[in-house]
Amino acid sequence: MAVVSTPATLERSVPVMDNAEVLRIRNDFPVLNQTVNGKQLIYLDSGATSQNPLSVIEAEQEFYEQRNAAVHRGAHHLAVEATEAFEDARQTVADLIGADYSETVWTSNATEGLNLISYALSNAALWAAQGRGNSALKGLALKPGDEIVVTEMEHHANLIPWQELAFRTGATLRYLPIDDAGRLSLEQAAGIIGSRTRVLAFTHASNVLGTINPVRELVALARASNALVVVDACQSAPHMPLDVKELDVDFAVFSGHKMLAPTGIGVLYGRQELLDILPPFLTGGSMITTVTMERAEYLPAPQRFEAGTQRISQAVALAAAANYLTETGLDRIHRWEMDLGQRMVAGLEALPGIRVLGPAAGEERIGLAAFDVDGVHAHDVGQFLDSMGIAVRVGHHCAQPLHRRLGLTATTRASAYLYNTTDDVDQFLDAVAGVRAYFRA
Question: Which range is the signal sequence, renumbered to this chain (predicted)?
């Protein structure tokens, strides 16, 4: 893996976080200082939505108090300051992921980013057929006989847009299967990713299994087939160092609300040469150079894909979140969460009647664990834990095909972040240990 160190390597090179530091970090998060059902809140649902530190909340508030205006459109003082804050935020987030400024596109969330790529690729065929755009655009146009490859562990956001792209273009959608432990077989992948593959889309880290996928090896298979590589980084960008250039991917997406920022803001990374030739997804103001009553000419990226009034305050807040993560150290956060994840999995595996999805204890995974309690529905497990002040996720986690592959309809998922302690995990495990007895399973 290009961006994930082994636990042994991290132990030698990274100052280790501890519970005392995490408790100091927790003081930065106002929402965590409350009780739920008479118990101190233990928040283990960051895989769905993380909480916001004061610096992020204040950054958005300060924008509205001091420089609220439309960006790119005004010559007055507030508009200039708003534009500077907006574009400075873009540079900050680009630096976080090793991208160039003009390769970083604001979206509402990762789902929009994936749909943007999907629709831009289907529009490529229309533009190429009519002689519009760059001559290289024809090479991106999908057609019958072409193949789009995903994996069996994908979140719906990285599956349905590709299903629809296949429908619109006549291409075929294929998938890389997983084994019972939630791992991809590179041998099988090599037999599926081939000369017809035009797009390979996969998650960097599974939001259900905790699996960290072998990005470098999968990219190598795609490069051998001259296929585009799209990575869902929703569960990696908030939790570990991420360098999109080192990973050699063509596109990557992630959401702000999973990495200490507000909802309504996401990021699409794309190679400059691809973004500049792809047709836009949404059209309107702020993304054009010249407009007549018959046609329009479009700006280069990133503005090419940012029609209309943008998520200005949210972008500023996302930059504050990026700074918070950088100052804490994403390598340190990753090590701490890996330890918490191992503690969760080992503890769950020791309980009778509990089935943990994904890699077993001792194997590499991110800091989350999805599990099934024999004889108790996931929603009942979630309500039982909530009665003890413990917030977890229940359901299929927007991954129905994955659950179906594993013979399940729903699971309970606990996901840790930089503000969780080992005591949080231990209290969670103690609570889970009482579930089956409470429901007489």
Answer: none
- CA angle, 435 then 439 then 441, to 5°: 90
- For 235-243, what is the mean pLDDT? 98
Q: What are 112-162's pLDDT values in tens digits?
A: 999 999 999 999 989 988 888 888 898 999 999 999 999 999 999 999 999
Domains of the chain: 7-53+329-438 (3.90.1150.10), 57-326 (3.40.640.10)
| Closest C-alpha to 357, from 47, 150, 43 | 47
The first and second tokens of residue 298, run together, are 């479009």
* Beta bridge partner(s), residue 372: 355
Q: ∠ at Cα 440 (439, 441), nearest 5°?
A: 90
pTM of the predicted structure, to 2 decimals: 0.95
163 alpha carbon, distance to own chain's centre: 19
Measured CA to CA in angstroms, residue 19 lies from 98, 140, 195, 341, 428 at distances of 30, 50, 51, 15, 16
Residues annotated catalytic, as ranges: 398
Kindly state the DSSP code that residue 32 receives in the 8-state scheme: G
Q: End-to-end distance of the chain based on CA atoms, in angstroms?
A: 41
Say if residues 207 and 234 touch (Cβ distance below 8 Å).
yes
For the record, the structure tokens of 226 come out as 């001259």
Q: d(Cα 431, Cα 2) in Å, to the nearest integer?
A: 37
Q: Which amino acid is at 142?
A: L
